[in-house]
Write a structure and sequence with these properties.
The protein has four helices and six strands; from the N terminus they run ααβββαββαβ. The protein has 138 residues and is α+β, with helices and mostly antiparallel strands. The chain has one domain. The chain has a four-stranded antiparallel β-sheet with strand order 4-5-3-6, covered by helices on one side. A hairpin with a 5-residue loop joins strand 4 and strand 5. The radius of gyration is 18 Å and the shape is elongated.
Length: 138
Amino acid sequence: MSQVKEKTKSAYDILVEASEAAEAAVKACTPQAIIVGSPSTPLGNDVDPNQKTWFIEGGVCGFASVVIKPARGNIVAELKKRKIGSAHYGGGYSFSSWQLAPSIRQDQSYERACAAAKGAVEVLKKYGVNAYVDARID
């Protein structure tokens, strides 16, 4: 019985659920922190402790988007109505992970962005939307 109710959710309610899943995924994510610095030798893969170093708590920088392909249906119409996302360069419709997980709007963590996008995609797929994560390291 509950499955029938879920299938009749409005596009807005599905996006709210996707946003909640994206935020929960961000909170559950613990990125692999990195230390950035200069190598002690040219082309070395170590970090010279005598040079300035930076600790990056969020890990590597990057971003992730949710892509819906084909770009039609109630979910895409709702996203367009709310001015969220745009046409994807490879076809379909896409929006950035931070648009459904505002807590990472100022965050550059690749892992958090991917977690948010994956959380949203899981919910969209649950409702029959053909969606996937498109992510890149900066």
